[in-house]
Automatic annotation (TrEMBL):
Organism: Hevea brasiliensis
Signal peptide span: 1-28
MF GO annotations: ATP binding; protein kinase activity
Keywords noted in UniProt: ATP-binding, Glycoprotein, Leucine-rich repeat, Membrane, Nucleotide-binding, Repeat, Signal, Transmembrane, Transmembrane helix
SUPFAM superfamilies documented for this protein: L domain-like, Protein kinase-like (PK-like)
Localization terms from the record: Membrane
Pfam families: LRR_1, LRR_8, LRRNT_2, PK_Tyr_Ser-Thr
Protein name: Protein kinase domain-containing protein
PANTHER family attached to this UniProt entry: LEUCINE-RICH REPEAT RECEPTOR-LIKE PROTEIN KINASE PXC1, POLLEN RECEPTOR-LIKE KINASE 5
Amino acid sequence: MGAHAPRLARKTTPILLLALSLAVVAFGATDSAALFNFKEALQNNSALDNWNSSVNPCDWNRPNWVGILCLNGTIWGLKLEGMGLTGIIDIDSLVPLSHFRTLSLMNNQFVGPFPHINKLGKLKALYLSNNRFSGQIPDDAFQGMRSLKRVFLANNEFSGNIPLSLSTLPRLMELRLEGNQFQGRIPDFRQKNLKTVNLASNFLVGPIPEALSKMNPDSFSGNKDLCGPPLYSCNSPLRALNKKGNTLKIIIGVILLLIILAAIAVALAMFHRKRHRPELERNPSLSMNSNKIAPSYVADQQQCQVAAESSGQSRRSDKLSFVRDDIEKFDLNELLRASAEVLGSGTFGSSYKAAVGSGQALVVKRYRHMNNVGREEFHEHMRRLGRLKHPNLLRLTAYYYRREEKLLVYEFVENGSLASHIHGNRSLEGKGLIGKPG
Ligand SMILES: *[C@@H]1O[C@H](CO)[C@@H](O)[C@H](O)[C@H]1NC(C)=O
Ligand SMILES: *[C@@H]1O[C@H](CO)[C@@H](O)[C@H](O)[C@H]1NC(C)=O
Ligand SMILES: *[C@@H]1O[C@H](CO)[C@@H](O)[C@H](O)[C@H]1NC(C)=O
């Protein structure tokens, strides 16, 4: 055996060398072809224009092609960063590259699902951060990648759970998943070599695995509800407070809102009363004693007189005009002095129920926004209204005309009004046109 070996070696060496060199050439060609296949699947790949098939990608450790990582004349990785690349990541085309260990496609424009990266079983580093990859990553996406040390998927749009297979990678040292939409719980990472993990700005919940308890708390910030070291303990009162704090804020917010709404309601109610009270609604006991009548009412009456005098109509305009004569007469002062009860108020004015003379009940409607109606026109309308007779209609009894304000006086009907007859007793109070039934 010892004697044969050298002879055999001497005989076969040239053939072996030839075969070897052919293999190297073939190998180089395969590498180039593999890379060209990878490039073909990409879009907007003009940044890779210097890839030239007549030149070897690598001169030992020196790359001839842009973005190629070379080691001892082999292709060790691709670093195609910030090149505006998009299109398909053809993992299959990289499988023939037997020394391929690292792939970086960071800061490009890639979209779509996570590529089938575990076809590159010897990969040590995967950098896909700052693209627009999206969707759920299958739980077994990293299955069998026993050499993988670095996984950078930050700032994409990945969703769903963090893939379980990441937590079983035996060599994992650095994991960056921040700025995605990962949700659910963090899988139970147990790797001892894990040095950096960043899971910030996702939608993760639940306890942080013990193996990650020494990480920087910032690596867990901006999630939905993570707990345990390095954050608050999951049953710490601080965390409860923190959670309650949010609830408390909401409750306080709601209470504040209610208080503000109540304040607005009270203010509106007061404003409303202020506008309408001085008119006819008055305390009957006050109305008996003119000395005690509210100043606003006095002002009201004076206004009437001033208006009457200035309009040159003498005291005639101070009088009510009656459109019916089958009714007990009363004068304006009597009406103004009468105890009154607000029936409703609306867009055009307010209605009151008042009792005059021998307790005759009347509905008085006060219109304030009919300033454009001329005196004659108004008289004419009132006369026509006075002639209307219908069982379902309140009959006009009298009216009062002043340019700024008109009063219409109806007889009061106990069991309803036109509105309640027409609308089946649903009050039209708010419309202020027809008095509410008493
Ligand atoms: C590829 O390289 C060869 C040899 O260096 C050169 O002649 C040729 O112009 C190159 N082609 C491109 C497209 O750069
Ligand atoms: C690369 O070649 C050098 C010698 O030139 C050797 O020491 C080293 O182990 C080789 N590396 C690999 C990864 O093959
Ligand atoms: C194409 O790539 C260039 C850089 O090479 C980049 O500026 C551009 O935004 C990219 N276009 C698209 C559509 O991604």
